[in-house]
Amino acid sequence: MTTNSYAHILKPLHLGFTTIKNRVVMGSMHTGLEDRFYNYPKLAAYFGERAKGGVGLIITGGISPNRQGWLLPAGGTMNTLGDIAPHRLVTHAVHKHGAKILMQILHAGRYGYQPFVVSASPIKSPISPFKPRQMSEKQILNTIDDYVNCASLAKKAGYDGVEIMGSEGYLLNQFLSRHVNQREDRWGGPIENRMRFAVEIVKGIRAQVGEKFIICFRLSLLDLVHDGNTMKEVVTIAQALEKAGITLLNTGIGWHEARIPTIVTSVPRAAFVDYTAEVKKHVAVPVIASNRINMPDTAEEILASGKADMVQMARPLLADAFWVNKTATNRVDEINTCIACNQACLDHTFKNQRATCLVNPRAAFETELVYLKAKQPKRVAVVGGGVAGMSAATVAASRGHQVTLFEASHEVGGQFNLAKVVPGKEEFHETIRYFKVQIEKTGVDLRLNTKVNREQLEREGFEEIIIATGVVPRALRIEGSDSPQVLSYAEVLRGAPVGQKVAVIGAGGIGFDVSEYLLKPEHQPQPQPLADWQREWGVDPNPNYVSEGGTQAAEVHPPVREIYLLQRKTSALGAGLGKTSGWVHRAQLKKHAVRMLRGVQYKAVTNEGLWIDMAGQDQLLRVDTIVVCAGQESVKDLMPSAEQNTLANYHIIGGAKLAAELDAKRAIREGAEIASKL
Fold first, then answer.
1. What integer pLDDT is reported at residue 644 of this predicted model?
2. Closest among 201, 102, 112, 92 to 149, alpha carbons compared
3. Domain spans of the chain?
4. Over pLDDT 90: what percentage of the chain?
5. Most CB within 10 Å of its CB: which of 45, 178, 620, 648?
6. Does domain 486-521+557-630 have CATH number 3.50.50.60?
7. Which residues are catalytic?
8. 175-185: per-residue pLDDT in tens?
C-alpha cells in the first residue's frame, strides 16, 4: 500500500454527535440553480458529483430566511414547508456518497438587488442600487424568528446543519461592524451590542434544533473596510458565538465592497490563514481556513501546522469535483486546478447567469454536458494544442475515440503560455500541466512541431477533424508600423526587450495584462511573496491587528516604466474586463501611474515616438517602444468552405472560430461540447 503524504487532509473530524470523513469543506458558492425549485435536480447532480468526488462537508449557496433577505428578486428561500421537497433531492444526493451538507442561511441586507432591502442603518452600499431601510426592533426580532424557522425547515429537509453567513458584508456583518451599524439602541454601539443580533440567532437556532445539529458561523476575520472591526473585537464575537452554541467557526475575509482583492488569482495562496490561526487560539470549536487554497500541498501545510482544523474551498471544487479522491490516491498531478480567474463562476453570478467554471465546463452542467463512451470509436484529428484543442482532444479520447493532436510549435498551451508569465497569473501553469497529464492518460497521440494541411489530414483517413488553430495578433497598419520599436504583445510576453517609455495600443484584457507585465521589476519573484503583496495593497500583516478592519496605508514602489495605455473607443478603459476582477487590474495600473487615454486615433510611428490624434489635436508620445494589443485574427485556413467536398467532417472551435474578445472559457467549453457529441 502506498503511503499518502496528505494524512491531515484525509483525517476524519469527530464532532461528538457525528463525524465528518475528512477535513475538506466545499464552501458556499452561489450557482443560480438555488433560486428556482425546478433547477434542484441539476443542483442535486452538481453537489452529488462533489460528494462522490470525496469532499467531507458541503455548504450550499445562500438561501434567504425571508423576503427582505433576498439577494435577487424572488431568490432561493426556505421559509415554508413547501420549500422542503426540492431540498430533499440535494441532501439525498450528498448523503448517498457519505458526505455531510449544511444549508447556508444568507440575508443579503443592503447588498440585495431588490427594493425591500433593510440594514442596521439606512446607509446605501456602494455596490448595489437600493438604499436600505433601517430595521426596527420588531423587524430584528422577527428576523431572528425567521432564521430559527429557516434552520428548523433545513433540518426537516435532511440537512446535517446550517451555516449562518456573518461575513463578506451581508446583513449580520452590517450589524457586527461600525462601518454600517451606527445605531444607538441595544443593537448598536459597543461590540457587545453590535454582536447581539448574531448571538441571539445562534441561541434561537440551537434551542430549536437540539444538540445534534451542526451550526457553523462564517465570521468576518478581516473586514478590510473603513471602521471595520479589530482582531480583539473579532475574538470577542467568536467566543460569544461559541458560548451561544456553534459547532464550527468558518473564515470570511473582506467585504464585497472592500477595495482590496481577497480571492482573485493575484492574491497569494492561503494569504489570510494567519488571521484564522489567531482566532483559533481563543476558541475550542473547530475552525475552518478559507480563501485561495487550491492545491493539496497548501491545504496539508495549513492543517499540519495547526493553523486550522479544516480547509474550505469553493471554486477549486467547481474546477475538479474529484479533488479529494485524487489527493487520497496520490494523483495530485491529475487535479484540474482552479486558476482563480472568476470568469465563469463569480462573474456569472453577478450577471445573474448560472455559475460554471472556465477550466471545467461541466460544473453546474452535470446533467447537460455528459461524456458517454462512444458506441463507434472514430479517428479524430485535432489541429492546434491551445486550451480549446486540448479540451476537445482529451474529452474525445476519454470517450474512446482515437485522437491525434497536431501542434505546430514545440509545446502545447497556446495563448496560456503567454498568460502564465503575467504577474498574478502564475496559476495558468497549472492548467497546462493538467492538460498535459490528461493527454498522456487518455492516450492522445500528440505530434509537436507538426504543421499539417488539409490534404495530409484527408490522406491519413481521419473521420472528424477539429480545427483549433487559434489566433495571431492583429498587426498595426499605420505609417512606420513595421519599425523595430513596434512589437506585438506575443513578442513582449516571450521576452523581447522593451524600452523605459512605452505606448500600449489597445486596452482590452491583453492590454491590461501587458501593462502589468511591463510594470514588474526585473528582480521580483513570481508569484509575489505574501509580505510584498500585503504592503502593496495595505493589508495589516499582524494577525492580532488593532488597525480598523485590518487595513493600513499601502506602499507602492515607484513604477519601473512610464506607460501610456491607449484605446480608440471613447468608453472607460477596462470597461469590458471581468466584473469581479476588473477593478483589481484598473487599480493596479492606476497606482503605478499608467496614463490611460481614450478616443485615440493612431497616426504614425517615427523615430521620436508615436503620433496620435486626440479630439482633433495631433500629439507626439515620446516613447521608445510601441506594443500592439489591438486584437487578434483567427487562423482558419484549414477550414473548408461550405461548397467544398471533403471526406471528413470538419468542426471549428475557440479563437479560430471567433477571435474577438479572446475567451478561454468559450474555447474550453466549445472543445468539450464538440467532443461530447462525436
1. 85
2. 201
3. 7-350, 379-473+633-677, 486-521+557-630
4. 82
5. 178
6. yes
7. 170
8. 999 999 999 99
